[in-house]
Amino acid sequence: MGSGQVTDWQGKNVTVAGLGVSGIPAAKVLHGLGAQVTVVNDGDDERAQAQAAELQGLGITVRLGDGDSLPEDTELIVTAPGWKPDKPLFQAAEKAGVPVWGDVELAWRLRGHDGRKPAPWLAVTGTNGKTTTVQMLASILKAAGLRTAAVGNIGVSLLDAVLGEETYDVLAVELSSYQLHWAPSLRAHSAAVLNLAPDHLDWHGSMEAYAADKGRIYEGNQVACVYNAADKATEDLVRAADVEEGCRAIGFTLGTPAPSQLGIVDGLLVDRAFVENRQKNAQELAEVADIDPPAPHNIANALAAAALARAFGVPAAAVREGLRAFTPDAHRIAHVADIDGVAYVDDSKATNTHAAQASLASYESIVWIAGGLAKGATFDELVAGAAERLRGVVLIGADRALIREALARHAPEVPVVDLDRTDTGAMLQAVQEAKRLAGAGDTVLLAPACASMDMFANYNQRGDAFAEAVRELGGR
Length: 476
Description:
The protein has helices at 23-32, 46-57, 88-96, 103-110, 130-143, 158-163, 177-181, 201-204, 207-215, 232-240, 296-311, 316-325, 353-360, 380-386, 400-410, 426-437, 459-473, and strands at 13-17, 36-41, 61-64, 76-79, 100-102, 121-125, 150-152, 171-174, 190-193, 224-228, 248-252, 261-265, 268-271, 283-287, 334-339, 342-346, 366-370, 390-395, 416-418, 443-446. By secondary structure, it is α/β, with parallel strands linked by helices. The strands form 3 sheets. A 9-stranded mixed sheet has the order 7-8-6-9-10-11-12-13-14, with helices on both faces. A 6-stranded mixed sheet has the order 15-16-20-17-18-19, with helices on both faces. Strands 3-2-1-4-5 form a 5-stranded parallel sheet.
């Protein structure tokens, strides 16, 4: 089970760790290849029992409520990405010399096993902006006439993309830090790290470990390592990576690009990396107006997507066409309504401080709705940076006191409404309070800087609740 392709799975004892969106497909694929599969899962609830019954009907062994012990004779573990590295199962595997792969690693190893030529991967990671960038990239690749799909952490199984009937010229792959941790042999055609900010530190253990897992995306890159010129940590990861001979470091910037960078000049996206005589020449790719929405961090996403597409040889005209055709997912700086001269914007996807910082930087005069589960975050830097833009703040959620305390330290003059309730109906009251604080020309911005699970099933439901509350105000 080394770094090469596995060609014969017949009879191999493989343990799949975790039921769910990655574990069940992995178990079925491995079983179909002839492996002896045992699935272990921490939970033993009704849903897990139903999933187990389905797999047992195929002849797959399932052990519920027993996710910590290593099944006898295990030769390989394929884990769900969210399972933490310090779990006893993995400690036992390390002691026994059993390798651990994630579903991304499994998909990477299975490329071409059916004789088809594997599609190259253009890979994207970062604390924020991954999904949007990958979707932009896929739109650009399609505009160039390439068969492609946006896959990976975006919710589309890489196993399906690698093993399905449809063939691709290239894949646009979103990868989380969890997935990269368990993908030791991944080698992308080109890859980008969009940004780095503290996130998921409870899983990784430290910022250094988190950054190192993000940096794995650059290992073995063939053509381009794309980094954020405004975020030195991303460039440092490029410098530390072991890449193929001739692979280039390509920066993106919201300013005028230097040679080997993409950037902005007079409202145009321009390329000084993939042109002849890049010391003197630049290629226009698109206009900032082609990007929806044209917020600074979204322009950065577009530049990163363009850089990866250009690394794959996509012509400039396809970059423009692909960006124009792209429509962002819901709850990402989504304009909901204008009411009495006030704009209402849903950025429920801003689930951490880094994302909220980018969102707050997109507007000049803001009534901010924030709060939820902080996930160990602190808010002083976020509040201090946004203080001049804040006209008022409405706080919701379990950890709102952390934001309130940061506001008291760094924006004491800003009026704050603290809603002492965590039921889902709090959103309607929050929007009503925001309307009271806002005046013509302001933006009421839902950018919570926190996770949603204290009050909502997910950020989508939170954003939907915000939009419905705005409609209640008369923004239908």
